[in-house]
Amino acid sequence: MANRITKLFNIKYPIIQGGMIWCSGWELAAAVSEAGGLGLIGAGSMYPDVLRTHIQKAKKATDKPFGVNLPLLYPQIDEHIQIILDEKVPIVFTSAGNPKKYTSFLKEKGIVVVHVIANSKYALKCLEAGVDAIVAEGFEAGGHNGIEETTTLTLIPKIRELIDIPLIAAGGIGSGRAMLAAMSLGAEGVQVGSRFVASTESSAHENFKLEILNATDGDTKLTLKELVPVRLLRNQFLSAVEKAYEAHPSKEELASLLGKGRAKKGMFEGDLQQGELEIGQVSSTIHDILPAAEIIKNMIKEYNKTLESLSRI
Q1: How far apart, in whole angstroms, are the C-alpha atoms of residue 280 and residue 178?
Q2: Closest by alpha carbon to 144, among 219, 292, 42?
Q3: Cβ neighbours of residue 250 under 8 Å, at least 6 residues apart?
Q4: Closest CA to 146 of 231, 249, 37, 203
Q5: In terms of DSSP bridges, do strands 189-192 and 167-170 run parallel, antiparallel, or are they unpaired?
Q6: CATH number for the domain whose boundaries are 4-204+283-311
Q7: CA distance 71 to 75
Q8: How far apart are CA 49 and CA 14, in angstroms?
Q9: Going edge to edge, which strands form the sheet with 143-144?
Q10: Which of 75, 77, 76, 106 is nearest to 92 (CA)?
């Protein structure tokens, strides 16, 4: 499956694990990289010293390439960047901000830079910034999301028309069949988030993992657009948010309702009612918790089997 993505990251399969807050620690990143994909440590939920520890543990657990996902809105981002430089992390995925801010600096240090976008405007900004690849993330994705609500099926071919650099599809991809669909639309790799949340090595709380297995159609919703759009699994907190919207709340009232530490409470501490449970629509198709290596193996097997069956049509 060699292509521009596998060459760019020096990996076997064009499968990238999403750098999800509270779920993507060193253990998951190392396991994905060991299995032939690209593991990412999710820095958005880590204090600088915690990030350094995760990077060092990942380096001990694998000699394969791995990277760090760096949300540009993170308040201590300069400290994170210094740690990435100190620890010689070869790959950085940036998100939630303008790619121009750090791309040139990171590339000057020899780091491969990828930026996550959800619309054409930011895809063009990525080209201007000089990123090495783009992740185009559709509306189906969990966690922080695009406000435009453009689905992956629509977004990928649109971005492919605009750019000639390597393109990675994200949002609603948790199987080999979905991977093949994304590749047929013009992607050269896929970023998988929700499926890896429900993995043995994920740092998500066991309660959250098991709750994902119970998800059915319509159990997630994109909300809180006035703050940062986020897709959540239904629970008491989401119900409270929906009720608040009936009264046409201000941005400040929504921020007060959200409070602090809500995502940690749900995904990392396992409070299934009052925490934020960030997960994608693909959660309704996840039925088991598996080791990351087995998830990748299953995806590649299904990809090849589906490709073979389509060739006979």
Answers
A1: 14
A2: 42
A3: none
A4: 231
A5: parallel
A6: 3.20.20.70
A7: 9
A8: 30
A9: 143-144, 230-233, 220-223
A10: 106
- Residue 253 in tokens: 């009232």
Structure tokens at 255: 């921020």
Nearest one of 295, 172, 207, 255 to 22, comparing CA atoms: 207
CA distance 229 to 85: 30
Tokens of 141: 């994705």
Q: What is the pLDDT of residues 229-247, one digit of tens each?
A: 999 999 999 999 999 999 9
Per-residue pLDDT of 126-183, as tens digits, reads 999 999 999 999 999 998 888 889 999 999 999 999 999 999 999 999 999 999 999 9
Tell how strand 15-17 and strand 230-233 pair up.
unpaired
Ranges for all domains in the chain classified under CATH 3.20.20.70: 4-204+283-311
d(CA 296, CA 298): 5
